[in-house]
Amino acid sequence: MRTRGSWLMLIVAVVLLFVAVSTGIGQKSNQTPQRWEYKIVVGNVDDAQLNEIGAAGWELSAIGSTNDRVPSYYFKRAK
């Protein structure tokens, strides 16, 4: 006769096996990693320019500035 602890261990093992199989642990992925291209715009831009860049598929990732306070806009989009 098995003890309660043995049954609990068996249940846990079955659950872990199910999770491993359903999530594909240990299987190689055939997906290629996402590739990005980047664009930097230096200087002031207005809403119309931002909308035009966005319509071309670019997403604003960051805004920075140089020592002389000129803004730089960093965009990315999927290749």
Could you walk me through the main structural features you see in this protein, from its secondary elements to its overall organization?
With 79 residues, the chain is an alpha+beta fold. Helices cover 37% and strands 28% of the residues. The chain has one domain (4-78). Strands 1-3-2 form a three-stranded antiparallel beta sheet, with no helix packed on it. The longest helix has 20 residues, at 4-23. It is elongated, with a radius of gyration of 26 Å. The termini are far apart.
Q: What does the main sheet amount to?
A: 3 strands, antiparallel
Distance between the termini: 62 Å
Q: Report the structural category.
A: alpha+beta
Instruction: Please tell me how large the radius of gyration is.
Output: 26 Å
Describe the structure in brief:
The chain has 79 residues and is of the alpha+beta class. Helix content is 37%, strand content 28%.
Compile the SSE list and pairings:
Blueprint: H1 4-23, E1 36-42, H2 47-55, E2 59-65, E3 71-78
List keywords for this structure.
79 residues; alpha+beta; 3-stranded antiparallel sheet; 2 helices
